[in-house]
Amino acid sequence: MQHAREVPQPACVVVEDHQLFFPEQRISFGQARAVRDYLASTVEVPSKHVHCLTIDTCQITDESLALILEGVRMQTPANRRRLYLKKLVVSNTRLGPISMIQVASIVGSLEDLTLCNIQPQLGRDTIHQLLVAILDHGRRIQKLKLSKMNLNDHATVQLLIDIMNKQRQVMVKLDLSWASLSC
Question: Closest by alpha carbon to 116, among 143, 141, 92, 86?
Fold first, then answer.
């Protein structure tokens, strides 16, 4: 079996102790594609597997973040049921529905999910899609933080209650600090 050649690590990203983060404030689409290709090329390099992805105070487009999350998914071999990624932190960043679809698709592997001060505020349907994914597939989530988020409708609050009820054996922390909550 021929193995894919490892792509060089892009300069815009740091991978250290299974943590991936971006020291630069701006991540272009081309850089995000390079990160995706790099991650996809490290399937068989355990020391490069990403367990924690942090995107904090970065200027990144929705499409670019989706590419990076796609790379995290591609890093996992097909015969493995769960991703290597266990913790995802996205804060003080602009996101949208494309990247949130990727987040929802990996939620089954996560133990720790933080979404904080996402700009612009995500639409109700996008938040619902994420919460439904957590309810249906997020059996491993121990820590969930949705800080400074707009969770302002009855259906959203009900989904959060359902998640707490279903996850009460596993979830040790739910942080909704500074979130808008009302029905």
Answer: 92
